[in-house]
Amino acid sequence: MSAFTPDGPELIPAGTGPAVDAVLTLTGERTIPDLDIENYWFRRHEVVYERLAPRCVDRDVLEAGCGEGYGADLIAGVARRVVAVDYDESAVAHVRSRYPRVEVMHANLTELPLPDASVDVVVNFQVIEHLWDQGQFIRECARVLRPSGLLMVSTPNRITFSPGRDTPINPFHTRELNADELTELLLEGGFSDVSMSGLFHGPRLREMDARHGGSIIDAQIERAVTDAPWAPELIADVAAVRTADFELSGREIRNIDDSLDLIAIAVRR
């Protein structure tokens, strides 16, 4: 059985590997913690929360598209207040029961249920590529942010995630973006001072890439798409991935177009 998570395959091998016992069903629209077979994609998402959480210290934060809720809860450890919004009612119920320090609401992200100028930071990680009206969502973020508030967005880099394709490789994505397209979207939506970083494999993950035919990502996707058995070595490496195995670098250090994911921070005008 195979499907897709927000930014990679829903890696459930056929007849091999560790048992999957998810609190939320792996529908293909979110990643979740505590599953060895999903660990690469989860850590690739979690690292961005870890690196950007310091920007949320003592601030009122909205996570627009919270999914399972682990990221909103991580931010709640440093923020003054965290409000989380998601369109999936089952995810909202899950967050409400599992993460009591997060205030969670069910809503469409193009109509955020918050007053004007009511938060200091909006977080939107690995979500914008799922939205049909990305421009309206960005304008809504500008509306709910206080002057000079921050919008922090992460999304798979179209150039490396769906190379050479007119449509996204992930069937749950509506429109993927490159760095210039994401910057333009933010500037047109009411933001300025856009800083762009990229997420890359660090040394340990590059060693794993070499062990698995040049790409641990492709090795996982191949098995998810073909239902091929997982080699024990691949299962072990995927389960061993840590957030420290990823590197976050700005334009001045590395070519953003080569990144796995894009991370943008923009200031409300």
From TrEMBL:
PANTHER family: TRANS-ACONITATE 2-METHYLTRANSFERASE-RELATED (PTHR43861)
Claim: Methyltransferase is one of the keywords in the record: yes
GO biological process: methylation
One GO MF term: S-adenosylmethionine-dependent methyltransferase activity
InterPro entries (UniProt xref): Methyltransf_11, SAM-dependent_MTases_sf
Organism: Mycobacterium asiaticum
Pfam families in the cross-refs: Methyltransf_11
Keywords: Methyltransferase, Transferase
Methyltransferase type domain sequence ranges: 62-152
Coiled coil: none
Protein's name in the database: SAM-dependent methyltransferase
